[in-house]
Design goal:
heterodimer, A: 533 residues, two-stranded antiparallel ribbon, globular, B: five-stranded mixed sheet, 15 helices, 61 strands, elongated, disordered N terminus
């Protein structure tokens, strides 16, 4: 009996000891579905695609805010925030609140994990250029932002990063771009994961320098001396020389549903809407292109009739020619909804549908469908832009940048026309058309900068943040603020307000940045550092 | 069903074990002959024999025959008889009084064993043994006649004075009461006492399944009888507890009958973690995952996929015990920090005969809440004008700022058709249907001396009031136990549940949220129009005016589809080895396994999924638990009883799953993954393990003073290796002062004081310590992409959270238990909270996980059980419970102003934990106010100006909750009513916000008639608006508040009361513009009083049922939520939180809640 008992006690107690002695759990707390050490090149590819593929950021930044702000599109309720200046901090916050924890976090991590690694110097250099590109969009829209300590929460433990001044950020941009371009070496590691240039190192050098040029020109008013020296440095290092250098993302034909990044995020903001909710072309753009007899206008602004304008998938029938045969090409006025100016219905014979009464809204021009397909290329930085910037720099400061301002200007016009052929179904303009366009628009003394930068504004169509930045910097094209009863903002907004989340979670640092804003108030009518009067 | 599961090749080894044991048990059941005689239960405490005889005669329709001089009718009988036949009953009585008996027909003849005159005094001596023939010390031995007591010695021996024929009683905790009749012929006796698992006293199941006398507990518990909740049923059993238990707050959300409920016991103890209790079924903790909800983000959307507790079939429940404080639950470890709900299922051992029980409930469901806060006077239009063009009519379909409705007017519609401008009565109500629920359960049970089993099968079918939304749930439950020899007992149970829910309603900001999408629909537009108009000739979605974020409800219910299936197996084996009478070893293995599958189909042309989408979530939830428990108990001296238990357990959670998103529907005739050309699958797996060791020491002194002490040590896999173990104690005591001081029981029949204190440690969830990367689910033109997958900044230095709690209470019973009072005061404090804290996005992470923050709860719970009327035919029971809990956030991490628990979609409202404020404070913008507190209005729009900062405007947790249960019994009729009272929480109702903006709310009525009249007068006067205004003749809505009319010399503004009137449609249109507007008017007092349940039952008399060979037949008319007695929130049910997470207090586009009326039939054979 007793032996029996002792045996049981020994067994049970030893079992318990075995059970509890282990406070080591092996890999139980390691997620078996995720990696602890992913190839940084895949992070590069991710942030590259996200830049123009993220549907939230691109819809909010481009289609809702910046494109309407510079009066390229408008008229739809969804983008009244931009065309009627309805102040919505949340829409302005998405770039920050989605961009920092995705784009910034990954590129900072990728740069850190490729630094001081002789086997990844090209990858490191490309990541550094990409990092500048990502931060440039952020600082240009917000002003002073966390930069030197941003995205560092896990790497260094800095959870509340300081805000760097835009001035210091730009200074570092130039240093970084110069160093990164110098680091690039075609004989070193290949970066086939790169989705911009498929690892073409020569193109990356040109892209780094062209980006350098774009950022240098940003300082044309606030710090002309630095602007000039950096323009010279960029130019001398070798910028884009033809449309074959254009940096673009050829998106996939995917209709995004806010969780996919493969389609073009800007296009998606158009294509997800039924016809009656699509933005229309702003008359500011139509009038400007009309006044320059721009051969692109007939392709860019099109009129569509849709059997069921409430059905996204309803066929879209191009009736531009029938409409313009009866009335002039019409878009929407700045600050107006598509239905604000009423046009009498037009009777148009549409093959397959017979004689159709086309209502007012349908008569207003939209961006040509070919421009906003889901697989449309997103043009990050074009040769045309480079030429216009060189033309401006030559004009502004008399710098010696290869050829004269007029040639740069004309090169820009030609390149801007030709780049449309990158789009599937986009027009291929003939040399004759382009030459006629150049002849029609010679540089007029005293108006050169306006002409150059207005052309750049047209060339930057669909690149809202860049068009917005260039307009703020140069004041061209000359835009009349759209004053409406729906907003108390009576001047065209000039920056994005900081997110409420940042104000709450990083208040000490943010307050310093806000104090540095002219007027000391975080408002969208204030100016960023480089945007001086 | 098993085949299907085998195909899924998951079978755990433990399941084989369970199956084997089940087979053994089934095969060893000997189907004892069913006795047709009645079974009787009595509970006599010091009851005179005369009364005992009377009761038996009444109950069994028998007659006792005896010689009154021979039998002492004043002999006090203390005996509990449970389900025994008459022969056994009489036998037990006869033993107590020392009599012989004989049963002849219906007559029981009784005769004393020996004539009292011849009694002789002698010493009866002997030894007491247990079932294993071990000597049993400490047994209380009483001569029932002389009332002298003593206890057996260390080797079980005793000697007691006796007279011939005296009853000698042997009593010891854990053993059946044994009585012998002393006779001089046998002066030396050996007594064997049978151990028992069923106590004779009020026994409750406590932690680890340990049965305890209720009076021994040093903490407050609450018990609900399974029979109370099986008639008027809820699809989710836990909702049946609403209003019944003090301090248990159950919140039904907006998810409907298949949705999850939030259960909070004594307040929230974790700021951002899980606050819901642990569920333990028959001693084994089960998984209570929420399978998915809409979340707490600003854009919260999706469906509520229900919770795990809904799998329990009420018919299988014997009792539900709520262990409220950590002391009650200290032994279950971390998961029990929020309390424990113990569910004890029915076993087969209750009856000695074959038992078949049928329970059937059929009910219909209709809308409980209606749009009771809206206006039905004005219809579609803007600026009080009738639409004149189709284009205009298309833009304001969801605007009720038109002119006064007039059926004689014809007005153009959004489709170009002219219709009368008339009110469509009960318009939105017409969308819903009458729901129905059918529940049928059949249970079989059987037992003999060695083996018992119970099997039940249940089927639930529910058609929700939302058309196309259905639920079917089948549950099979088997429990069995068997004794192998005298020392080994095996118990096994297996539950299988299959649930299929079609079309769970989409909630909150989901484009498919029907409740949201109908908000503001003009009073003259018939919702039924869209029945046809939602798609065009190609079958494509047609925008109905709601845009891409407000889908046509008919498209949602007819074309889109979501389906959830759950297959759950809960199985366990338990073995007991009774080593000696005082030493027992128990081992258990159990597994809880759920296969969860969710698919959501959006056909081609659905906005946001234009080319078709099929989402597919497959998740397995498995929890495996193994434990060992060694119990030692000993009656050390006659007055002191000690018990010690040592246990250890391993808990392993492993939940692997995949999420698939399939887009671009290429094959259009089959809705299947194969039809989609773009497929992505992402895998996930959640794992954690806890190893524990625990001990429990119990001391009982003279059955009135009890002391419990526990100690537990957990090691959790989720914490850093060097800091992953934590130990915590508890101490509780109970003092029955009425017994100790021998207080006269005629007034105070029972009185006890409880005191306890405990600590519980809590770990965190898995994978919080390091950063992870993952591939982007798709490739881009063949190029893989990848990035950091972690979204919460990891923290390698986490340590466990500690919750310390104290409670004191008393339990008093008066007037022979006619009045019972149970009161408890408790405090608890949780520190080193492991919290998800917002981080600035610029750090790369929107959240970080840190140890910071202290949260505390203080509260009282009072339960009053009364029997105001007890008479022969009529009884009235009135039970009242009340609980008040104050849940305060003491502190958070330095520099963290508050933690967001959930964000509202609109007006910048958040539910937060903010130091110094109650937990779940509602943070939002108030109106700016002048020094007098008047609202400052915008000088132009006259809308209130938004305050600069968000302030606390309310809270989402209740001040106090209570319940009132009235039960009336008249003969065979019973009527039970349960009233549920919740007071003091607020609800931010975005339904009402949009009802106001759209002009649907009755709050937008003031000034409309005046404005219309003013405009008519202006036009007939031929004046422009400016001239009219200049003439000061404008009438309309005059917003309450002040406007700035200048500044004084110091530069401070001067405010003047507003007298200006304006067009109410313009005013309300401006009231909320994007990013601006104040939340205050839409934060309602959510307090309510609801009639939760009415059950009207009739027990068919046995005289009738016995003819039909039915043992027991009861029918009942039942209702759940028949009506709301009082609420303050217009248009919606105050119980309409769309999330069941911590961020309570937000309502958005809720569907009407449901009431049910039905019929219940209960049959026992």
């Amino acid at each position: 009996m007793k032996r029996y008992l002792i045996r049981w006690m020994v067994i049970s107690i030893s079992m318990m000891l075995i059970l509890v002695s282990c406070n080591k759990f092996g890999d139980v707390n390691t997620d078996p579905t995720q990696s602890s050490n992913l190839d940084p090149a895949l992070q590069l590819a991710l942030v590259q695609l996200r830049f123009s593929g993220d549907p939230d950021i691109n819809e909010r930044v481009s289609v809702i805010e910046t494109m309407p702000l510079v009066q390229q599109i408008g008229g739809d309720y969804e983008n009244r925030y931009g065309f009627e200046y309805v102040e919505d901090r949340q829409y302005m916050s998405d770039l920050w609140e989605i961009g920092y924890p995705n784009d910034v976090l990954n590129i900072v991590d990728a740069v850190a994990r490729t630094s001081n690694n002789p086997a990844k110097t090209n990858l490191n250099a490309i990541c550094r250029i990409m990092k500048v590109y990502i931060f440039a969009r952020l600082t240009d829209l917000y002003g002073d932002i966390p930069y030197s300590q941003a995205g560092d929460g896990y790497l260094t433990g800095v959870v509340r990063p300081v805000f760097d001044t835009q001035q210091s950020i730009y200074k570092n941009f130039f240093t970084e771009l110069t160093a990164a371009v110098a680091e690039l070496d075609a004989s070193k590691d290949a970066v086939p994961q790169d989705i911009y240039y498929q690892g073409n190192i020569a193109e990356w050098k040109k892209f780094g320098n062209s980006l350098h040029l774009r950022l240098a020109m940003r300082l044309s008013k606030v710090d002309p001396a630095t602007a000039q020296s950096e323009v010279m440095a960029a130019y001398n290092a070798g910028v884009f020389t033809s449309n074959s250098d254009i940096c673009f993302t050829q998106h996939a034909n995917i209709q995004d549903n806010y969780s996919d990044i493969r389609g073009n995020g800007v296009s998606n903001a158009f294509t997800q809407q039924p016809d009656n909710a699509r933005p229309r072309v702003c008359n500011t753009l139509i009038n400007e292109m009309n006044s320059t007899l721009d051969p692109r206008l007939q392709y860019i602004a099109r009129v569509y009739w849709v059997p069921n304008p409430a059905d996204v998938l309803s066929p879209r029938i191009d009736i531009t020619d029938s409409v313009t045969a009866q009335i002039p090409l019409t878009g929407v006025d700045a600050g107006h909804y598509v239905y604000d100016v009423y046009l009498n219905p037009l009777n148009i014979n549409i093959p397959g549908y017979g004689l159709v009464s086309v209502p007012s809204d349908s008569q207003k021009a939209q961006l040509g469908d070919w421009m906003v397909t889901n697989d449309a290329p997103y043009l990050h930085l074009t040769y045309a832009e480079t030429e216009f910037l060189l033309a401006e720099a030559t004009m502004r400061w008399g710098l010696s940048l290869g050829v004269d301002a007029k040639t740069h200007y004309q090169n820009g016009m030609a390149a801007a026309c030709q780049q449309l052929s990158l789009f599937k179904g986009g027009p291929v303009l003939t040399d004759t058309q382009i030459q006629q366009f150049q002849i029609n628009n010679p540089l007029i003394p005293g108006k050169e900068l306006q002409q150059i930068d207005t052309q750049l504004w047209v060339a930057l169509l669909l690149n809202g943040p860049e068009a917005f930045a260039n307009w703020r910097r140069t004041g061209f094209p000359v835009l009349t603020p759209a004053i409406t009863a729906e907003s108390t903002t009576t001047t065209i907004p000039r920056r994005f307000e900081y997110p409420l989340t940042e104000a709450e979670q990083n208040s000490a640092n943010l307050n310093k940045a806000v104090a540095a804003i002219g007027g000391g108030i975080d408002t969208w009518t204030a100016r960023v550092w480089w945007d001086v009067q | 069903m098993q085949k299907k599961l085998l195909i899924k090749q998951f079978f755990y080894r433990s399941f084989f074990k369970i199956a084997t044991v089940l087979l053994l048990i089934i095969s060893s059941v000997s189907y004892g002959q069913a006795q047709t005689k009645g079974l009787y239960s009595f509970n006599w405490q010091n009851t005179p024999l005369s009364s005992v005889i009377k009761q038996v005669e009444n109950a069994a329709k028998v007659h006792f025959s005896y010689n009154p001089k021979d039998i002492d009718l004043n002999h006090k009988i203390t005996l509990m008889v449970s389900s025994k036949d008459i022969t056994q009953v009489v036998d037990l009585i006869a033993k107590q009084i020392g009599a012989n008996y004989k049963i002849v027909g219906e007559t029981i003849m009784m005769q004393a064993i020996k004539d009292k005159k011849g009694t002789q005094h002698f010493h009866l001596s002997g030894k007491v043994y247990d079932g294993e023939h071990n000597e049993l010390p400490g047994v209380i031995i009483t001569n029932v006649v002389t009332q002298k007591s003593l206890s057996s010695g260390t080797n079980g021996d005793f000697t007691i004075d006796a007279n011939e024929g005296d009853s000698i009683r042997f009593k010891m905790v854990g053993f059946e009461l044994t009585t012998i009749t002393a006779t001089e012929k046998e002066k030396n006796v050996n007594i064997t006492m049978k151990s028992t698992s069923t106590e004779l006293k009020a026994v409750v199941v406590t932690a680890l399944g340990i049965k305890r006398e209720e009076k021994a507990l040093g903490y407050s518990i609450a018990e609900i009888d399974g029979n109370d909740i099986k008639k008027a049923r809820e699809p989710n059993i836990i909702n049946s507890l609403e209003g019944r238990v003090a301090g248990v707050v159950i919140t039904e959300g907006a998810g409907g009958p298949a949705g999850a409920s939030r259960v909070i016991i004594r307040g929230n103890t974790s700021i951002t973690g899980n606050n819901q209790p642990l569920y333990v079924v028959d001693g084994v903790p089960i998984d209570n995952s929420n399978y998915g909800s809409v979340g707490s983000s600003q854009y919260a959307a999706g469906v509520d996929m229900g919770d795990a507790i809904s799998a329990i079939n009420p018919d299988d429940v014997a009792t539900i015990t709520v262990l409220k404080g950590p002391s009650a639950s200290a032994l279950y470890g971390s998961r029990a920090a929020n309390g424990v709900i113990l569910i004890t299922t029915k076993k087969g051992s209750d009856k000695k005969e074959l038992g078949i029980e049928l329970n059937s409930t059929s009910s219909i469901e209709t809308q409980l809440t209606h749009q009771d806060g809206n206006q039905y006077i004005y219809g579609q239009g803007n600026a009080e004008q009738l639409n004149t063009t189709q284009a205009q009519a298309e833009t304001n379909m969801f605007t009720n700022f038109g002119p006064r409705l007039d059926p004689n007017l014809q007005v153009i519609g959004f489709d170009g058709v002219y219709r009368p401008y008339a009110l469509v009565p009960n318009n939105i109500q017409g969308f819903f249907r009458t729901g129905s629920t059918f529940t049928n359960t059949v249970a079989f049970s059987n037992s003999n001396d060695n083996t018992a089993f119970r099997f039940s099968a249940s089927d639930l079918r529910n058609n929700d009031i939302l058309p196309g939304s259905n639920m079917r749930r089948s549950t099979f439950n088997f429990t069995g136990s068997s004794k192998f020899g005298s020392k080994i007992t095996m118990e096994a149970k297996l539950m299988y549940m299959n649930e299929d829910v079609i079309n769970r309603p989409s909630l909150a900001d989901d484009p498919g949220n029907i409740g949201n999408n109908f908000i503001g629909l003009a009073n003259n537009i018939n919702q039924a129009y869209f029945k046809q108009g939602y798609k065009d000739a190609q079958g494509d979605y047609v925008d109905w005016g709601g845009g891409q974020y407000h889908l046509d409800p008919y498209w949602v219910i007819n074309e889109m589809k979501n389906e959830t299936t759950k297959n759950r197996i809960l199985g366990g084996v338990q073995g007991n080895y009774a080593i000696t009478s005082w030493l027992n070893l128990q081992g258990r293995v159990s597994t809880d396994l759920t296969y969860f599958d969710y698919t959501k189909y959006s056909p081609i042309s659905t906005p946001n999924s234009l080319f078709g989408e099929l989402d597919d979530i497959n998740q397995k939830y498995s929890t495996t638990e193994a434990d060992l428990l060694l119990s030692i108990q000993k009656q050390v001296t006659p007055s002191l009883w000690l018990s010690a238990k040592f246990g250890s357990s391993i808990l392993r959670v492993d939940n692997p799953g995949t999420t698939g998103v399939n887009t671009i529907m290429t094959v259009t005739d089959v809705v299947n993954i194969n039809s989609f050309s773009d497929k992505t699958v992402v895998a996930n797996e959640y794992r954690e393990q806890t190893n524990s060791f625990y001990g429990l020491l119990t001391a009982a002194y003279k059955s009135y003073l009890y002391l419990d002490a526990t100690l537990r040590r957990d090691a959790s896999s989720t914490l850093p290796v060097n800091n992953n173990t934590y130990t915590y104690p508890s101490l509780s005591s109970s003092f029955v002062f009425t017994d100790a001081f021998k207080i006269d029981k005629s007034v105070l029949s029972f009185g006890k004081i409880r005191l306890s204190g405990a600590e519980v440690g809590t770990a965190t969830s898995a994978y919080q310590l390091q950063q992870y990367y993952s591939l982007y689910p798709q490739t881009f033109n063949g190029q893989p992409l990848g990035g950091i997958a972690t979204t919460v900044l990891p923290n390698p230095h986490l340590k466990p959270t500690r919750t310390t709690s104290y409670e004191g209470g008393t339990e008093l019973k008066f007037f022979n238990d006619r009045l019972g009072l149970d009161a408890t005061y408790y405090t608890s404090k949780s520190k080193d909270q492991i919290n998800l804290v917002a981080a600035p996005y610029s750090s790369g992470y929107g959240e970080q996980i840190i140890n910071a923050g202290v949260i505390d709860n203080k509260g009282v719970e009072i339960t009053l059980n009364t029997k105001p009327i007890v008479s022969k035919d009529f009884t009235w029971n009135l039970n009242v419970n009340f609980a008040k809990n104050t849940n305060t956030v003491e502190s958070l991490a330095a520099g963290v102003p508050y933690l967001t628990l959930s964000d509202a979609r609109w007006l910048g409202v958040s539910i937060v934990a903010k130091p110094g404020s109650p937990y779940g404070a509602i943070l939002g913008y108030d109106a700016q106010r002048d020094s007098k507190g008047d609202v400052i209005l915008d000088p132009t729009t006259l809308t209130p100006l938004q305050s600069a900062d968000r302030t606390v405007l309310g809270k989402g947790t209740w001040n106090w909750t209570g319940g009132l249960t009235n039960s009336f019994y008249y003969k065979n009729f019973g009527l039970t009513m349960v009233i549920d009272v919740k007071q003091g929480a607020s609800l931010f109702s975005m339904t009402n916000l949009f009802d106001v903006i759209d002009g649907s709310s009755a709050a937008t009525l003031p000034g409309r008639a005046e404005w219309i009249q003013s405009e008519e007068e202006r036009q007939s006067a031929g004046m422009t608006s400016a001239q009219w205004a200049a003439a000061g003749k404008v009438q309309g809505y005059v917003p309450q508040g002040v406007v700035q009319t200048g500044t004084n010399a110091n530069g401070t503004p001067i405010y003047t009361k507003n007298t200006k009137a304006l067009d109410p449609s313009v005013y309300w249109g401006n009231y909320y513009s994007s990013g601006n507007g104040i939340a205050t008017p839409f934060i309602y007092d959510a307090s309510y009083i609801k009639m939760r349940e009415i059950t009207c039952s009739y027990q068919v008399p046995t005289s009738l049922t016995s003819k039909w060979k039915i043992k027991d037949l009861a029918i009942a008319i039942v209702s759940r939520n028949p009506f709301i007695i009082h609420k303050n929130v217009p248009n919606v049910d105050p119980d309409s939180n769309y999330t069941n997470g911590n961020g309570q207090g937000l309502e958005y586009g809720s569907l009407p809640s449901r009431k049910s009326w039905g019929f219940n039939l209960n049959l026992k054979f």
